[in-house]
Amino acid sequence: MTAYRSDLLRVLDERGYIHQTTDGAALDALALKQVVPGYIGFDPTAPSLHVGSLVQIMLLRRLQQTGHKPIVLMGGGTGKIGDPSFKDEARKLLGADSIQSNVNSIKRIFERFLTFGDGPTDAVMLDNSEWLDKLEYIPFLRDVGQHFSVNRMLSFDSVKLRLDREQSLSFLEFNYMILQAYDFMELQRRANCRLQMGGSDQWGNIVNGIELTRRMDGVEVFGVTTPLITTADGGKMGKTMSGAVWLNEDSLPAYDYWQFWRNTHDADVGKFLRLFTDIPVDEIARLEALQGSEINDAKKVLADAATALCRGPEAAVAAAETARTTFEQGSAGADLPTLAVSGSIGLIDAILQLGFVASKNEARRLIAQGGARVDGESVTDEAYVIAVSGQVKLSAGKKRHGVLTAA
């Protein structure tokens, strides 16, 4: 680890957030001298962010915890285009009403992680539609466009990989990196923002913003990127068989959120405790050193702490109790996902509607592999019909459970 002197970079370094910095020594010196406003942008492409965005949210939390000012930038403007970085194809374009609805929904999650207000280190939330929607095309090309080299833009990995695969990159998407660079400059002007943070796939966009701000305003600003977070088995963080792990309660029940963390691979427990909880690093070192079945205790600590941050302490306690009654007592916990059924339902439909899988084909595979159980009994007939007169416990594998109740 680099010997940083500021609390900001020292904490980010020891907890595993730093992949690249544009000038770590200068940023370290600035963070020692003053409050550093820093931002991360979030495009509102859905009503909820998912676990894949959680490293960035926690990065803003660490910024505030170490005495600096988080700026949450909602991409009400850039969301109308969609970030093409490392995407195989263009995102579906959303209308203004859908984007605003998503912005309103996403805002709620940040209040769990950050303290908002008017103080010097209080978080603020801005929307880049405030300035991007007002840009005039010709003046923008003359004033801003002249500072961008198309040759250099084509060399960035986020663009180059798309072109190397001979996958279409629209002119609309190509403009995204210019608009993001403009965001950084605009935030420096409006909020004295000196730092942009993001995932490693944002490196090129961040560098563009730094150079544009230097050329147009003569101000030194900085960038920090986080590593790509993968699981021990090489998978992408937050991707499960049944889809994304959403942060908003109305997109994913608290029990399922808790269970996601409880199912962490043994080798990932320490890393995830550092990134996604506030547990001190000395205690994390003790937890990740646990061996054998005792590592499950560390996983429960991770699940409790991560769920308490995102959903609140009461939700974490309820989810843990549901897990205890489900796994230790073999009964159906009160917080399990529930599906009301009139009379009867096919096994495939029940598995799908409880959210255990994303498609009927996945449900069929689960059943064929012996992973479906009705009231604890394995069922391998995909045509099986469940009669529901009271309460029926349905399980998919060892770790996903739900309840069918009579409507």
From TrEMBL:
Which positions are annotated as binding ATP?
Answer: 239
Q: What class of enzyme is it?
A: ligase
Chain positions of motif 'HIGH' region: 44-53
| Keyword terms | Aminoacyl-tRNA synthetase, ATP-binding, Cytoplasm, Ligase, Nucleotide-binding, Protein biosynthesis, RNA-binding
Q: Where is the RNA-binding S4 domain?
A: 346-403
Task: Write down the CDD domains for this protein, in alphabetical order.
Answer: S4, TyrRS_core
Q: Where does the secretion signal sit in this chain?
A: none
Q: Which SMART domains match?
A: S4 (SM00363)
Protein EC: 6.1.1.1
Which PROSITE patterns has this protein been placed in?
A: S4
Binding-site residues, L-tyrosine = 39, 176, 180
Q: Name one GO molecular function term.
A: tyrosine-tRNA ligase activity
Top-level lineage group: Bacteria
Q: Which reaction does it catalyse?
A: tRNA(Tyr) + L-tyrosine + ATP = L-tyrosyl-tRNA(Tyr) + AMP + diphosphate + H(+)
Instruction: List where the motif 'KMSKS' region lies.
Output: 236-240
| SUPFAM superfamilies (alphabetical) | Alpha-L RNA-binding motif (SSF55174), Nucleotidylyl transferase (SSF52374)
Where found, per UniProt?
A: Cytoplasm
Homology family? Belongs to the class-I aminoacyl-tRNA synthetase family. TyrS type 1 subfamily.
Oligomeric form and interacting partners:
Homodimer.
Under the heading NCBIfam families, the entry gives:
tyrS
What does the function comment of this entry state?
A: Catalyzes the attachment of tyrosine to tRNA(Tyr) in a two-step reaction: tyrosine is first activated by ATP to form Tyr-AMP and then transferred to the acceptor end of tRNA(Tyr).
Name the UniProt record assigns to this protein: Tyrosine--tRNA ligase
Q: Source species, please?
A: Sphingoaurantiacus capsulatus
